[in-house]
Every structure is written in structure tokens, then in C-alpha cells.
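Suppose you are handed only these lines of text.
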Amino acid sequence: MFLMPEPPKADASKPLTVDERVGLDRFEFDEEPFITVDTDVCRTCETKPCLYVCPSKVYHLEKGALVYNTEGCIELGACAIVCKHIGKDAIHWSYPRGSYGVEFRFG
Ligand code: SF4
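From them, the structure of the protein bound to iron/sulfur cluster can be written out as follows.
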């Protein structure tokens, strides 16, 4: 049986950064793709708002091309909303299957 290590205790006297808060969460990664992106469409997207809205940094650019990694997804869904309304509607978003995904630790 594999036990996940406990996250480090936060200093309650200081507010946590977004990165620190996300770092406290636990993830059970779903091998089934729950977010897919038509990255061919992304080439025509000038604003690329997905790069700025995701606190887990699921989306980034490599040599000018959009790439994504859903392992740290906190299931916010903001990427799909901004992509639909400001981008090019290239994200197909759903929640991970039951028992997979993020477990918030309320950091
Ligand atoms: S906002 Fe949508 S279309 Fe634009 S780069 Fe991001 S995923 Fe692609």
C-alpha cells in the first residue's frame, strides 16, 4: 500500500501564495483524458487566455506551440470558459472519472 506523504505544515501567520495553496492539494491522476485540446486550432488563437487563467499552469508554450499537462488540474474549468469566449473554443473539458482528480486540502 502506497501512502502519500503529508504536505508540509503551513505557517499560519503568513498568507499562502496560489502556488503554495495548489501545492497542498492531493491528486489522483486519471489516465483517461478528461481535457483535450485541438492544438491545431490554437495556432490561430492570438490571445491565448488559457495561459493566464489557470492557477495550476496546465497550459504553456513550447517553441510557440501550445502544450498542456492535466496532472495538476484543480478542475476549475476557467480554461474552457475563456477559451470559448476569448480564445478559439478548442478545449473539450470534463471532470475526471469518479474517485480521480483533485482533493482539496484547504490550504
Ligand atoms: S485559449 Fe483555447 S484556442 Fe486559445 S490557445 Fe488556449 S486552448 Fe488554444
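What can we learn from it? The beta strands are 26-28, 35-37, 59-62, 65-68, 91-93, 101-103. Residues 37, 41-42, 45, 48-50, 66, 83, 87-88, 90-91 surround iron/sulfur cluster (CB under 6 Å).
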